[in-house]
């Protein structure tokens, strides 16, 4: 008997050895085992089981795959239990499976992936979509479906496309639900949207309608009306049913479901009518699979297999392609000399005192090579290209966007990670450059809950009796803008009337209460008040709130209802015309330059005309008088001296043009000085204030203080003033008596101040551009709606009427007076003087070159005649004589003028003789007639 046992043992050992040898050889094993674990009776499991079985048949019937080796897939039912799924996966580790298709549950995947890492057995899940199943943490876990990261990105882009800012997430509170919603939160945040409320539901089977109702009642009290439902089919349908019962599937609501719903709609359609009634208008995502001939053929085959009782959904296609993915990878594994062998895990053998038999689990020695081939797979399946990206995700994630209507549903568009939202299939964009511009994002029209075709606003005021707390500053000055009724929380004023009128234009009620802010003794800090919005004390702030950069970083403002900006207010004095008013049009520098240029141009013309023009010759005294007379007479274009030279005429023409401009400017400025009342202030604007060290006033609580510090004005120069009366007193005293040189404040306050303070004026230009608006929390939809209402008030004239009611005042009677405009300075005419100066320089240069040329010829001639070089003094004397001597051209010109004068005199003499001869003839004829 003992011999028999020894023989059996030898045979077993021989069999093991033979198996090992065959694995190391070139021949392939007859059978390769793969496990599959999922819930058979679930929505996904029912279709996945059929798809996997059909895929195994197709693989084994295809001689080009595995080349004679039979693929065997061992199915394990997890019975919708995370624990049983984990146990089933552990059982596979005790067998000789080289890979496992599954698990279906993300919860089980988190647990069993640690085992896969240890035993080097790849797990390929066609249904676990949890985005936190990281390829870095779980290298042996592969996802043959799309991660929920992409699904949540698609939802975020839908929310952004319709302009909603907040959503409510209802989810099952497990790894699948929590991590999916976390991904949604991240993608929304990148688009300046957010999840305002997260409602978790227990994932257990003990959840009742009462539990769901408690959750939805809380949701109904929230502001947002955009609800994202991320759950399992059983819980998801219960949520939709209770929501329908509570009236939350009516007008104004938006429901967006993840792809759990399309899995049911595709595989179990048509659903009962009462079930369809609970989801009318819901938007649903479905994993996109491109149309192909193989997909249509498999769909036809599926209908025959199931007799049309079970539809084909995307998870069935994923399961089918997963089997083919494993088959191709195993085939490559064998082609590369891989062997199927297992070894014991020494770590598990060290665990003693346990009845779990963990030592039965062994390490797959060829796991790393098989994993490498899985990741390098590249073929086209029923779901499209099956290829992994570097992060081990399937390439080209895309979803169909479905709208549930009536007894069925229709597709309203697509989303892909490549092209975003579109009404065309994603495949049409892959050959083009990506275009994610807002103009390219399109969807067909949607029928929303309540059978509404208009896009829902997406939010309402919370239906929990809570009123909005609107902060209002307690002003102690300029109470025309905001003022509090004594002893109450009621306010009046321009800003309050604008806010009330805008709220009345909204298509919904805005329950609110005003909350005063400030101590009543001085104007509060508006920046501190705005910060209380972010702290949650206020739901908004209404008042004369300037829209400035540091405030826009923490809150959202409405459209400005008042244009504003900082201006400088300073005292002024009137300027009388006086006897010397004619000197005021030009500055002293300008007068000096004009005088110099008159003399300079006269000298230039004299130099150019002296040699050839008799009118510019004579004794030195006469020539000096000629220069002065010629220069000054050009001012009135009354010069009588003729210019003969070309250079002289060129200089004179340019100078006369300059004189014309100077005359015109002087006349216009003097006319203004003599006819318009002039006001004078030594301060010209903010720049002149910066250059002095005099004190500057600002309004308490205004942002003007911080702005002045930012532009370099020391804080020691800034004086806080709390009322218009303090403005006037400080300005009248001036810096010498403890007052201020000027006040910097916003234009609306200044205009109201100047309406009854006629001793001060705005000097310079407005040096900031801003406005007043109402502040609300970031991404508040109320800010957007109130902006539209403010624009309506502006367009229909109500805003102007409110302005006239509170701010229209009788202005000072100085409308015909203006602050002294700047005198005409040299910089205004620098171009003209530059042109004239250049022309004179060029003319003189040409003239002296001509003189030097003639001087050179004369010097050479003297050297030839004398036979010796001349001294330097003699050469200088020769040069001066050439400059002063009279040119032949001048003689010819003078002779020509003399000839012209003699000719004219002879003509006059002849005309006189003719007249006397005619007179004598007439006398003779008259005498003859008498005789």
TrEMBL record:
Hydrolase keyword on record: no
Positions of transmembrane segments: 590-608, 650-674, 829-849
Pfam families in UniProt: ANF_receptor, Lig_chan, Lig_chan-Glu_bd
Cellular compartments annotated: Membrane
Extent of the signal sequence: 1-18
Domain Ionotropic glutamate receptor C-terminal residue range list: 469-809
Gene3D superfamilies in UniProt: 1.10.287.70, 3.40.50.2300, Periplasmic binding protein-like II (3.40.190.10)
Stored SMART domains: PBPe
Keyword Glycoprotein appears in the UniProt entry: yes
Top-level taxon in the UniProt lineage: Eukaryota
Main location: membrane
Membrane topology: Multi-pass membrane protein
SS bonds (residue pairs): 758-812
InterPro entries: ANF_lig-bd_rcpt, GABAb_receptor_plant_PBP1, Glu/Gly-bd, GPCR_3, Ionotropic_Glu_rcpt, Iontro_rcpt_C, Iontropic_Glu_rcpt_pln, Peripla_BP_I
Family to which this protein belongs: Belongs to the glutamate-gated ion channel (TC 1.A.10.1) family.
Role, per record: Glutamate-gated receptor that probably acts as non-selective cation channel.
UniProt name for this protein: Glutamate receptor
Native source species: Anisodus acutangulus
